[in-house]
Amino acid sequence: MGFWSKTFTWWNGATWGTSLFTRRFGDEVGKDDLGNVYYADKKNPNRRWVIYDGSNDGSRVPPGWQAWLKGTIEDVPSKALPPVRKFQKDPTPNLTGTMAAFRPDGALGSGKIRPASTGDYEPWIPE
């Protein structure tokens, strides 16, 4: 990442100020499968934050780490939560704005035609 984008952008990883604050006041407590790194304040461990690996999007934080960030669980997810079961799916980030987002029939980009109306609509008329 270039000098200028690291200095002036906050939406794609940590800025210089956030990185300096994290080095000075944070203790790294863990890392998730997406590469996000989680920190707790050295003096107040209940103050927690995440440094994203890539875009700063809260939907990219797995549910277990989300619970840790909010203080729902005290210890890191690997220690506080039960193991993942076979039937559980991996969490997915918010797909809005991507090609994988849901598009109903007739929407631009869906490639499908909206079904014809059935004519069963009756407008409400106040009395």
List keywords for this structure.
single chain, 127 residues, alpha+beta, 3 strands, 22% helix, 12% strand, elongated
Please characterize this protein's 3D structure.
- The protein has a domain at 3-80.
- The termini are far apart.
- Strands 1-2-3 form a 3-stranded antiparallel sheet.
- It has 127 residues and is of the alpha+beta class.
- It contains 4 helices and 3 strands; from the N terminus they run ααβββαα.
- The mean pLDDT is 86.
Secondary structure elements and pairings:
Layout: H1 3-8, H2 16-25, E1 26-31, E2 37-41, E3 48-51, H3 63-70, H4 77-80
Helix and strand composition category: alpha+beta
Radius of gyration over alpha carbons? 22 Å
Mean residue pLDDT = 86
Number of extended strands: 3
Spans where pLDDT lies below 50 across 5 or more residues: none
Shape: elongated
Query: Count of helices?
Result: 4
| Gap between N and C termini | 65 Å
Q: How does the major sheet shape up? A: 3 strands, antiparallel
Order of helices and strands: HHEEEHH
Q: What portion of residues belong to β-strands? A: 5-15%
In brief:
This is NADH:ubiquinone oxidoreductase subunit NDUFA12. This protein is of the alpha+beta class. The protein has helices at 3-8, 16-25, 63-70, 77-80, and strands spanning 26-31, 37-41, 48-51.
